[in-house]
Amino acid sequence: MFKKVLTILISSLFIGNIVAWFSGAAPIDFKKVAYSESETEQLQFLKTELEQDHSDTELMLQLGQLYSYHNEIDRADELLSLAYQQDPDNMLVKAAYFSNDGKLAGAMFDPVMGIYKLYRLRYAMSQVDAAAVQANSDFNVRLVRLLTFSFVGEISGHFDRVFEDEDWFNAVIDEDPAALPAEVRQLVYLALANAYWVKGQEDSSEFSIASDYFQKAESLADCPSTLQDACKQLSQMVVTLGKA
């Protein structure tokens, strides 16, 4: 039972950090995110379980996602790449692997002025998108895509997918809000708030939509540790709009 709960929790909390995933040739520093007490317990549990069964793809996925969530992207890659090799038809494994590979692309040094980094990032993002298209109505896979593309932004090459997912997630939430934990609904709203904040850089009218989503997110739970910068940025936007 505990293992199944972990699967749902960690799959749902696979989120990207508010950093530029692409910035030319220079490596991006994905700063490590500290583990909470409960996450430390999850980490130890998963490591112990995996030691007992080295071939369990689900455990590799969970532990790999947890590492990626905390920006231990090389450790995440070791597990997620193996999980993907073992089960390439698992769309959540595929989405998780290539989402983390997008971070690896950002973290690398590119001697050809960022050209290869951009190619690698775009390829990884196309695979995340392909996984979500094939999975279609799988909540967790679409959540990985939503969060990934929202925080990678236009450079992903698939930013418009965020707004397709917006309609899909809002329909799911409206149908039965109580069916989803508040923390999961919050992630959806934060991703959408950030996406409209990105759009607002070109059309300031989009900021009001970003503000609405952020205030919904803020009412549900404390801001996740990996999205503190995003929450501060969005909070300042709300204050600025209030003064306008």
Automatic annotation (TrEMBL):
Matching Gene3D superfamilies, A to Z? Answer: Tetratricopeptide repeat domain
Q: Where are the TPR repeats?
A: 57-90
Residues in a coiled coil are: none
Keyword Cell wall biogenesis/degradation on entry: no
Provide the alphabetized UniProt keywords.
Answer: TPR repeat
Entry keyword DNA-binding: no
The name this protein goes by in its record: TRAP transporter T-component
| Protein's organism | Microbulbifer epialgicus
